[in-house]
Design a protein that fits this description.
- By secondary structure, the protein is of the alpha/beta class.
- It has a single domain, classed as Glycerol-3-phosphate (1)-acyltransferase.
- 36% of the residues lie in helices and 20% in strands.
- It contains 8 helices and 7 strands.
- It has a 7-stranded mixed beta sheet with strand order 1-7-6-2-5-3-4.
- Helix 1 crosses helix 2.
- The longest helix has 19 residues.
- The radius of gyration is 17 Å and the shape is globular.
Amino acid sequence: MKSLISFFTLLFIKALSNIFYRFEIRWPEENKIIWSDVRLIVFLNHTSLLEVIYLGILPVSFLRMLSKRMVAPGAVKTLDRPIVGMFFKLFSPGMTPITRKRDDSWQQFLESMHDDSIVVIAPEGRMMRKNGLDLEGKKMTVRGGVTDILARVNKGQIIFAYSGGLHHVQVPGEGFPHLFKTVKMDVEVCDVTAYKESFKEEPGSRAWKKLVLDDLQHRLETKPPRFDN
């Protein structure tokens, strides 16, 4: 029952997104996405809770898979909000609340992953504000949790989803979102094993994790599409 509620919620979001927004998506030109093989989606350039808008670009068949198999870490601060939290739990029953610290909540999330799970993560762990920094005025950086996830995923495809940013739709903390805007995203896909083995260190080791974080930080700073809002 939970997966059906999730599926219909995802369909509803997809429909609204396509009614109120225009998408400019650059899909992979060479490697094709095999949706049934996707095991990890790394969303980079986290600027708004309204990034659920991007569900509008996904095939219905993949939304059905997400409703059954998606797991994602969610900030306790977000999931405890009365309306926003309920909304996120509706479309993602597999969302696990985590704190800002590497405590038991993070371990519980990692243990919720299975071989057929589809893990979705925004590895910056917080949203960019309008000044280009996080809420505390610090540079946006990729945090280490994503390497824990990647170390546990041993098959399938990884999607890198580079958001063009949604401050022109809604700045964090502001009111009702602006409608009928264009949103951009560039998408890359590769084999999980090939990506993990592209670094010259043992997967899962401290040195390997450092190389992965450096690569993701470079992607964050160079890959998202840019345009004047």
